[in-house]
Every structure is written in structure tokens, then in C-alpha cells.
Specification:
353 residues, 3 domains, 4-stranded mixed β-sheet, 12 strands, disordered C terminus
Length: 353
């Protein structure tokens, strides 16, 4: 498979005798096995994880980087494992202080990246994860930039993806949101201040992100809430029945007793039938307690109109919680609320939009 100029990856073993000259390069059996595992046997299409790996190889193997080149945007996002939905593939995106160039292999943009926003991995110079997330706002749009910023904040707050997964499994510490605020002040705001353009839009998105989105889909729904100006939703909220915790739900609107679940049962499909049965029992118990539950799949949370139609169609009472449109660019609502009514046991850890 061609990666870039004169660079290839051997991804399969072939018995065709005409390919004998290439066979001697097949030395990494583990890589070929990995490619086979991540390729759909019926359609022959590589899975997204494999496509992302190919893009990392493309970035790492490009042979004609200039001295002042900095890998940025989508290409840097692939290297940093930032979440992307249907990203452009097949080119390396490069920033250079004075030169610009476009070809089948690269897109070199005239852009100056401050040294503080550059990290080095081996011989590659690329934008830092936070700077990359800000750059995605202009390159791919606000939804992608928002999700990338939330991913960076989540890693920063918990130390790593593994730390974030552990918190999701065993419970978020009560100081999670306060810690996230400190991370924003210490790590994100300096990067924001060094942006040469787009600061107002970047600031608006930064004011709305949180560390509690456990998937790309949840980040996209959190962004949709800001677009719809819907207030009062809390994230990762625990619901009690007076004696014990029934469930921790993705999004909860406490005043209207509305729950939004992103991806529904599909996100548990790989964890076995037993867990799915547990989710069914939780679902039925929540309905018995008078909660209205709206399930949104991945396609819906990535399309504003489709998501709004289903959300207001199944929970029309939410319309009265739409905040009035304000002309001021500054936000008038608090970003985070760590514990909403300490005496109320309905939600223990919450992120309020």
C-alpha cells in the first residue's frame, strides 16, 4: 500500500509469483496479522482504527520535511489520537512560516506556530495536542474542535486515557471539575492567547467544554446542547431511588426529569448479554420512577437538526429551558457546577451546561 512519495507498507502476504520481488520485504508478521485482524472479512475494508494507523504511518514516513515544517491540524490529531469523525485522509498537513505547497501527498500552509505550541516525537515536529485541538476548529469546524478540546481536557484532568477510564469505572472524584478548571487556566488559556486568529470562537468553545464526556458521541451531544442553548443538563449524573444508586446516566435534566442516553445499548454490545440485561433492568426502573428517557444514536448526535427533532419530539417540555439568545459574546451562565444541591441525592457528580 502506497503511503507517500516512494514509501509503502506491506499489508498482506500474496502467493502470486509475479510479486516475488516484494515478498522479501515481508518481515513483520505481527504487522500483517494486525492488519488482517482490523480488516472486515466480508467487505475487505479496513476498520477506522487501522485507517488511523495508516495516517500515522503516512505522517511518520513522509521523506521531504523541511527544517521549519511543523505537522499540524488533522495530521497532528492522528498522531495525538484525538477523536475525529470522517476526517480527510491521504495527505500530510504541514505548517511552514513562509512556504506553501499542495500536492497529492502534502498540503503545506503558510502558518507560524510559536515554539511553545510545538512538541517533538522522534524527528517529527508537530503541534501540541491542545494547540492541535484549537487548530481543528478552523480546519474541520466547531464540532470537531469541541470534541478534541474535551478529549485533551479529559486526559489532562485524569493524567491519561487509562486514568480517565478508571475514573469512569470506579467513580469520579468530587474535585474533578475544580481540577479541570485549574487545567484550563494553566494549560489551555496560554495556548488560546497565542492564537493569531480565531480567539473569540475558540474562547466560546473553551468556556463550554468539560472533562466528563466518555465518548466522541457524548462530546458531540454536549456541543449540540450549546447550539440549542438548552440549560440545566448535568453529565455523568447518578440517580438514586432513596436507598441505592440505580444508574449513572450520560445526561440528566433534573428539573424536567429527562435522561438522554447517547448510543443506547450499542456501547454495551461488546460486553456481553449479562450487562445488557442489567441495563434493561435499570431502564425499566428509571421509567417506573417517572423519568423520560431519550436515546440518541451516533448518527443523530452528529447532525444538529436530526438530534433536535428527536430530542424535542420525545421531550417537548425541554423547549421552555432554552436560554434567550444574547448578542453579547461573553457567556452569562456558569460553566461548571460541582455539586448541585448537596442535600439532593439525585446526582453526585455533575457537569452542568
Amino acid at each position: 500500500m502506497a503511503l507517500t512519495q516512494g514509501m509503502y507498507s506491506v499489508i498482506a502476504r500474496c502467493a502470486n509469483p509475479r510479486h516475488g520481488a516484494i515478498a522479501e520485504f515481508i518481515t513483520d508478521e505481527a504487522w500483517i496479522h494486525r492488519v488482517a485482524e482490523q480488516t472486515d472479512p466480508e467487505s475487505g475494508r479496513p476498520r477506522f482504527e487501522l485507517l488511523d494507523m495508516f495516517e500515522k504511518l503516512r505522517v511518520a514516513s513522509y521523506p521531504h520535511y523541511r527544517f521549519d515544517d511543523v505537522i499540524w491540524g488533522v495530521s497532528a490529531a492522528f498522531v495525538h489520537d484525538l477523536p475525529l469523525h470522517r476526517p480527510p485522509r491521504g495527505k500530510v498537513f504541514i505548517a511552514h512560516p513562509t512556504r506553501r505547497h499542495s500536492s497529492a501527498d502534502v498540503s503545506r500552509t503558510s502558518k507560524t506556530i510559536p515554539d511553545e505550541g510545538v512538541v517533538r516525537i522522534g524527528k517529527m515536529a508537530l503541534t501540541s495536542p491542545i494547540r492541535t485541538a484549537f487548530d481543528l476548529i478552523g480546519q474541520l469546524g466547531e464540532p470537531e474542535g469541541f470534541a478534541a478540546l474535551e478529549s485533551c481536557l479529559r486526559r489532562s484532568t485524569f493524567g491519561s486515557d487509562a486514568g480517565a477510564d478508571a475514573a469512569a469505572r470506579f467513580g469520579y472524584p468530587p474535585d474533578t471539575l475544580a481540577l479541570a478548571e485549574r487545567r484550563i487556566a494553566e494549560e489551555f488559556l496560554p495556548v488560546l492567547g497565542r492564537l493569531s486568529k480565531g480567539q473569540v470562537r475558540a474562547q466560546r468553545l473553551l468556556s463550554a467544554i468539560g472533562p466528563l464526556s466518555e465518548s466522541y458521541g457524548e462530546s458531540r451531544f454536549a456541543y449540540i446542547l450549546t447550539q440549542l442553548r438548552l440549560t440545566g443538563f448535568s453529565q455523568q449524573a447518578r440517580i438514586w431511588d432513596g436507598h441505592t444508586v440505580i444508574a449513572r446516566v450520560d445526561f440528566l435534566h433534573r428539573e424536567s426529569r429527562t435522561i438522554v442516553l447517547v448510543d443506547g445499548f450499542s456501547k454495551y454490545a461488546d460486553n456481553g448479554v449479562q450487562l445488557m440485561r442489567k441495563e434493561v433492568r435499570q431502564y425499566n426502573r428509571l421509567l417506573e420512577l417517572g423519568y423520560r428517557i431519550v436515546r440518541l444514536n451516533f448518527t443523530e448526535v452528529t447532525h444538529l437538526e436530526e438530534c433536535a427533532t428527536k430530542l424535542f419530539g420525545q421531550a417537548p417540555h425541554l423547549r421552555k429551558f432554552i436560554a434567550p439568545r444574547v448578542r453579547s459574546r461573553a457567556r452569562t451562565q456558569p460553566r461548571h457546577q460541582l455539586l448541585e444541591n448537596a442535600d439532593a441525592p439525585i446526582e453526585v457528580t455533575a457537569f452542568t451546561l
